[in-house]
Amino acid sequence: MVRQSFTAFASLGILVFVSPLWATDLILGTRAPLVSLRWADEKAQAQTAWTSDALGGCVQALFYVDPDERAVNDHVSEALERERFPEAYFSSIAVINMDDTRIPDFILNRMLAAKQRRYPKAVFLRDFGRTLVHAWGLAEDSYDIVLFDENGKVLLVSKGRMKDDVLKDFI
């Protein structure tokens, strides 16, 4: 029974155990646990990884997207686009959950390139291994949004489609 509830995998020669039971939900008013993710455009970022230590400096919205659910929160992206917040006060981070999609990589790469052209100031990252599902308790096969304050502390967590009343508070 216990063996079935754990998923074991090897990473860089180190045995790591990951379990949904170990996933910690983000706590409002605190910093998220440290994670490291790959840039969407690795050539431009010269093999460096993004870490959640980079959260802060301004209010940031992190979009955790299963590409199969990519349209679920379009209303949030459109509302943010209409607001035209100054870069000094607001930025966006899109994290693509690469493990929860059936879309072939070559199509996904084209979709991602189109999004990067549409939102050139946003940071785009790829999550291989459901890092934010395990470390932050975000949902699989979903489109979640986390809002961080200028100190990198969690202000809001919205799992799935953001409701209109939450969107008003979010903006």
What are the salient characteristics of this protein?
alpha+beta; seven-stranded mixed sheet; disordered N terminus; 171 residues
Topology:
Layout: H1 2-5, E1 7-11, E2 14-18, E3 36-39, H2 42-45, E4 49-51, E5 59-65, H3 74-83, E6 90-97, H4 105-118, E7 123-127, H5 131-136, E8 143-148, E9 154-158, H6 164-170
Parallel strand pairs: 5-6, 6-7
Antiparallel strand pairs: 1-2, 3-4, 3-7, 5-8, 8-9
Report on this structure.
- It is a single chain.
- This protein has helices at 2-5, 42-45, 74-83, 105-118, 131-136, 164-170; strands at 7-11, 14-18, 36-39, 49-51, 59-65, 90-97, 123-127, 143-148, 154-158.
- It is built from 6 helices and 9 strands, in the order αβββαββαβαβαββα.
- Residues 1-23 have low confidence and may be disordered.
- The radius of gyration is 16 Å and the shape is globular.
- The chain is of the alpha+beta class.
- Helices cover 26% and strands 28% of the residues.
- The longest helix has 14 residues, at 105-118.
- The strands form 2 sheets. Strands 4-3-7-6-5-8-9 form a 7-stranded mixed sheet, with no helix packed on it. A two-stranded antiparallel ribbon has the order 1-2.
